Amino acid sequence: MAYTGFQEPCxxxxxKKYEDCCFIKDAIEFMQGNGSAIGQRLxxxxxxxxxxxxxxxxxxxDRLVKDWNYSPLDDFCGLSPYQMTRLLxxxxxxxxxxxxxxxxxxxxxxxxxxxxxxxxTGLSPRGLRTTAxxxxxxxxxxxxxxxxxxxxxxxxxxxxxxxRQEQDWGEIHTxxxxxxxxxxxxxxxxxFRLTRKGEQAFSRGLNGKFFLDFFKAYTRKFNWAYRDRWPxxxxxxxxxxxxLFCLHQFGDVVRPGTFYGDLFLRAxxxxxxxxxxxxxxxxxxxxxxxxSLRALDRFAGFFGFAEIRRPDQxxxxxxxxxxxxxxxxxWIHFKxx
Length: 337
Fold this sequence. Notes:
The chain is mainly α and 337 residues long. The protein folds into 3 domains: 1-71, no CATH class; 75-101 and 224-337, no CATH class; 108-205, Arc Repressor Mutant, subunit A (Orthogonal Bundle). The protein contains 14 helices and 8 strands. It has helices at residues 23-34, 38-47, 54-69, 81-89, 111-123, 138-157, 170-181, 196-204, 208-221, 235-238, 240-250, 257-267, 283-301, 326-331, and strands at residues 98-100, 128-129, 185-188, 191-194, 255-256, 306-309, 321-324, 332-334. A hairpin with a 2-residue loop joins strand 3 (185-188) and strand 4 (191-194). It is elongated.
């Protein structure tokens, strides 16, 4: 980072003062490689006479931080730190880069929506009696699974054990919990029933506003770690919009799951500190496998945003490849400037 005096002509020869010319560009380049040292560097510049006072240095620092927050970073696939913060902590707020198509009405057959329709149909009009443990009846789960997989697929799925309870078919268990969290299904007097909103979704069909309710419930309320034994790694779920942004950017061609896992690790390298060294896999391998299962397979694939392919479930470390499906771009528009 070559610099002249803050108020002196810029060394690039533009004739402008350095503060109005190359200062921000030079400082941002420095910050990207030495972010923790930028404050110390500005202090050194002030003490060496480059600034007329520490107050001037503070003004420069404030300006620098503001510009850096709004500058695209390669590690974030072109998002700025501010945009990444919005994606992580306020994904549905007015300043989020994501915009959702609430006018969408033509939804494709996705795994989540197919099971949801089976659930809504089963609960209309009188509902279903809960089991002693508060789950869906076994017969309903079994019959729904036969419809969903077909007889041959059902036999394959139950080769080593049948669906004796709701949790044995993890997908319908997930959809039922999500539907409750989204306000479409309720438990009342020992029965599962549709709420008024659930009845509207069943009779009128799904629309963009209803889909947003399910989308919010699954991404913000349902715990993705609930169905597997990987470490918590909450950031895998918290960064769900970043995953969809990456899929939006790079999903036009089939890519291995590790490609997106690498983008996740490049954006959030400190997540490796949350994972202990295991007896079989390194922290990086554990994060990759966890990300592939939760973010790619059970989120992007389950909701129909990506086509999941399994070329080799035995030999491959991460046995999936994926490509985005039209629903992703129809549902979300990323406004990134």
